[in-house]
């Protein structure tokens, strides 16, 4: 189990298994290049407009995430 420096809610294992993109993101956090590297306090100091996942989903994030999950075709790249 990986403990993160911020409070959030993980997507269910069944969703991560069904959605290759979200599953890949979870792997990056669990064991990849994002594992334990986020300094949230420093990020908030540099970017005070940084939203929590709940704040983002309450605004423009929810429709954007749903559209991305439901999109057919195309490629997704992490930058």
Strand residue percentage: under 5%
Structural class: mainly alpha
How would a crystallographer describe the biggest sheet? none
Task: Characterize the overall form.
Answer: globular
* Estimated helix fraction: 40-55%
Arithmetic mean of pLDDT: 79
Please count the helical segments: 5
Over the alpha carbons, how many angstroms does the gyration radius reach?
A: 14 Å
In total, the number of domains comes to 1
What is the distance, rounded to the nearest whole angstrom, between the alpha carbons of the first and last residues? Answer: 25 Å
Q: Number of DSSP strands?
A: 0
Series of secondary-structure elements, N-terminal to C-terminal:
HHHHH
Point out poorly predicted stretches: 1-6
Summed up, what is this model?
By secondary structure, the chain is an all-alpha fold. The protein has helices at residues 13-18, 20-31, 40-46, 53-58, 61-70. It is built from 5 helices and no strands.
Protein model, in words:
This protein has 79 residues and is mainly α. It has one domain. It is 52% helix and 0% strand. It is built from 5 helices and no strands. The longest helix has 12 residues. The protein starts with 12 loop residues before the first helix and ends in a 9-residue tail after the last helix.
């Amino acid at each position: 189990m990986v403990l993160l420096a911020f409070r959030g809610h993980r997507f269910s294992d069944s969703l991560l298994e069904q959605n290759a993109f979200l599953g890949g993101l979870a792997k990056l956090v669990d064991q990849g290049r994002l594992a334990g590297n986020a300094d949230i306090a420093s990020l908030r100091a540099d970017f005070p407009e940084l939203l929590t996942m709940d704040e983002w989903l309450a605004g423009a994030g929810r429709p954007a995430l749903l559209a991305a999950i439901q999109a057919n075709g195309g490629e997704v790249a992490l930058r």
